[in-house]
Design brief:
The chain is α+β, with helices and mostly antiparallel strands. It has six helices and 14 strands.
């Protein structure tokens, strides 16, 4: 365990201890995939309480940990506010990338740990932030690049938040992690293997290092800096024994 990982684990245990002694729910900041992996692989007996994680909607990647004393349930009490970022003039608006939105938020001086997922649509986006940052962002974020924008808080149910996605199909010799990633991303095997072996690939929140990891229908695969896909399953088998599969790619 490196020093950074050890410090995060220590901090998470301290939050659990605080929740236990104060008898209240204590929240972390947003945790990225690697940090969530550290949380979930920390032995449960090191924590003083149970914990849950949530990021504002069902498919969230970046999530907040809630440390729960006794039998408390966090339910919808997470300190997360969804903000919609819209162009001030839709007629002249241009599509922007995840990097554009994130860059504008970070440029305001906001720590990355205060920002959750950013769902990018054709000419707008929804960003999940710690509640304490919502008013500041709403007031201060007025431009992204050359485009004027406005920000407003959302109050819709979490299940309405769905990332944009596309369905992709392809044939593979077997349903392995590396072959499924090759269907989702236009990358050669020589570029996919280092992503997996370098600890950048997660299946259902668990870091996977094996190229041959066998996937099951419904598995959610996240690749840091590339995005997420869901393995939708096998559609058919060709006469040559290859598997026609379908994946849902978000982003």
């Amino acid at each position: 365990m490196d020093r950074e990982e050890a410090l995060l684990r220590k901090r998470l245990i301290e939050l659990s201890q605080m929740a236990f002694h104060k008898g209240i729910v204590i929240f972390s900041d947003f945790l990225n995939l690697n940090e969530l992996h550290i949380l979930h692989t920390t032995p449960k007996d090191l924590f003083y309480t149970e914990y849950e994680t949530f990021g504002g909607y069902e498919m969230s990647e970046r999530q907040i940990a809630a440390f729960l004393p006794d039998a408390l349930c966090c339910a919808s009490g997470y300190p997360i506010t969804p903000l919609e970022i819209l162009p001030t003039a839709f007629k002249f608006a241009v599509g922007m990338s995840h990097r554009d939105y994130l860059g504008a938020l970070v440029h305001l001086g906001i720590e990355r740990s205060k920002i959750g997922d950013i769902l990018v649509y054709e000419k707008s986006a929804v960003v999940f932030v710690k509640r304490e940052m919502a008013a500041f962002i709403t007031e201060q974020l007025t431009r992204i690049g050359r485009q004027s924008v406005r920000v407003k808080e959302q109050e819709e149910p979490e299940e309405t938040y769905l990332p944009s996605c596309q369905l992709l199909t392809g044939t593979v010799a077997s349903v392995r992690l590396d072959t499924v990633l090759a269907v989702a991303y236009p990358l050669s095997r020589s570029k996919i293997v280092p992503l997996i072996e370098g600890g950048r690939t997660f299946v259902n929140g668990k870091m996977i290092f094996s190229n041959g990891f066998h996937l099951k229908e419904g598995d959610v695969i996240s690749v840091r800096q590339l995005g997420r896909i869901v393995y939708e399953g096998e559609l058919s088998v060709t006469k040559k024994g290859r598997h026609l599969i379908q994946v849902k790619k978000f982003g």
